[in-house]
């Protein structure tokens, strides 16, 4: 939602590649989000709507649906009213929409605009806000290292983490009425991910295709190839052995995302 650090050009390139690609887990998250929309909503603004993967499903169900994003490429796929704009400066009057949707956005916002964005969401919402974010993400474990400048960062461009407690105190003028984990999935204990992270120099995990270094701008966004044009690395014997060993490790069910529903006080 901001060109600061992560360029709009990169988001345009990313949406051009992944538009309409929805995983089974993401499909479940979208459906769970839509079910939580209160019945007395007739107008909805989806901020950070991307390619409209949620927005487009709401058009026939509600009187007024609008999607807002900074990416022109993403907005090409939005089938409702759409606005090119920034979340920290919404071009709408106070209480313009019954509901503001903000799904998988807050974790991306740079600190300069994060607080402004929360205030703007509150200002434009008349009745409700629905937020979804990754659930208790350990960003130390999800970080990658740029092969060009050696900067360590989150490949999905996440700059903050959330848990239930943080969601409860997110807004001043809205109270939480639902805070719940979303899309339960089997996950390895945290210790396993820490071991895997420690072994990364041995495993030599390829630079993620979606990764964009916030320091130097190095990007892996070349379909099917690395930045240098060489084919993406394949799993070696060591990593295959680890995968086989992992099958015997018991997993626990955790929510991949958190969803918060808020009502104006």
Outline of this structure?
The chain is about 30% helix and about 25% strand.
Helix content: 25-40%
Please outline the major beta sheet: 7 strands, mixed
Poorly predicted residue ranges: 1-6, 222-235
By secondary-structure content and strand pairing, the structural class works out as alpha/beta
Overall 3D form:
globular
Our estimate of the beta-strand percent is 15-25%
> Any idea of the CATH class?
Alpha Beta
Count of distinct structural domains: 1
What oligomerization state is this entry in?
A: single chain
N-to-C SSE series? Answer: HHEHEHEEHEEEHEHHHE
Query: How many strand units?
Result: 9
Number of helices: 9
Q: Say what the CATH topology is.
A: Rossmann fold
Average predicted local confidence, pLDDT: 82
Report the C-alpha radius of gyration, rounded.
19 Å
In words, what does this structure look like?
The structure is a single chain. By secondary structure, this protein is an alpha/beta fold. It has one domain: Rossmann fold. Helix content is 28%, strand content 25%. The protein contains nine helices and nine strands. The chain has helices at 8-18, 24-35, 55-58, 72-75, 111-124, 164-168, 190-198, 200-203, 237-246; strands at 43-47, 64-69, 81-84, 97-103, 125-134, 143-145, 152-154, 174-187, 252-264. The strands form two sheets. A seven-stranded mixed β-sheet has the order 3-2-1-4-5-9-8. A two-stranded antiparallel ribbon has the order 6-7.
Describe the SSE topology:
Layout: H1 8-18, H2 24-35, E1 43-47, H3 55-58, E2 64-69, H4 72-75, E3 81-84, E4 97-103, H5 111-124, E5 125-134, E6 143-145, E7 152-154, H6 164-168, E8 174-187, H7 190-198, H8 200-203, H9 237-246, E9 252-264
Parallel strand pairs: 1-2, 1-4, 2-3, 4-5
Antiparallel strand pairs: 5-9, 6-7, 8-9
């Amino acid at each position: 939602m901001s060109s600061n650090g992560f360029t709009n050009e990169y988001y345009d390139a990313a949406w051009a590649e992944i538009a309409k690609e929805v995983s089974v887990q993401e499909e479940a998250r979208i459906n769970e989000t839509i079910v939580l929309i209160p019945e007395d909503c007739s107008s909805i603004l989806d901020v950070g709507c991307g390619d409209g993967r949620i927005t487009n499903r709401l058009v026939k169900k509600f009187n007024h649906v609008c999607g807002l994003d900074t990416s022109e490429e993403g907005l090409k796929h939005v089938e409702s009213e759409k606005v090119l704009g920034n979340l920290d400066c919404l071009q709408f009057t106070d209480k313009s929409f019954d509901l503001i949707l903000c799904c998988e956005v807050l974790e991306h916002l740079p600190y300069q605009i994060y607080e402004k964005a929360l205030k703007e969401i509150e200002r434009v919402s008349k009745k409700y806000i629905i937020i979804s974010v990754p659930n208790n993400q350990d960003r130390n474990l999800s970080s990658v290292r740029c092969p060009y400048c050696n900067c360590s960062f989150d490949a999905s461009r996440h700059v903050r983490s959330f848990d239930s407690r943080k969601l409860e105190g997110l807004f001043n003028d809205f109270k939480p009425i639902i805070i719940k984990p979303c899309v339960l999935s089997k996950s390895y204990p945290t210790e396993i991910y820490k071991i895997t992270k420690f072994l990364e120099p041995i495993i030599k995990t390829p630079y993620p295709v979606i990764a964009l270094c916030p320091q130097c701008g190095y990007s892996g966004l070349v379909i099917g190839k690395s930045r240098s044009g060489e084919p993406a690395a394949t799993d070696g014997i060591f990593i295959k052995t680890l995968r086989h060993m992992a099958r015997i490790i018991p997993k626990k069910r955790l929510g991949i995302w958190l969803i918060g529903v808020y009502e104006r006080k």
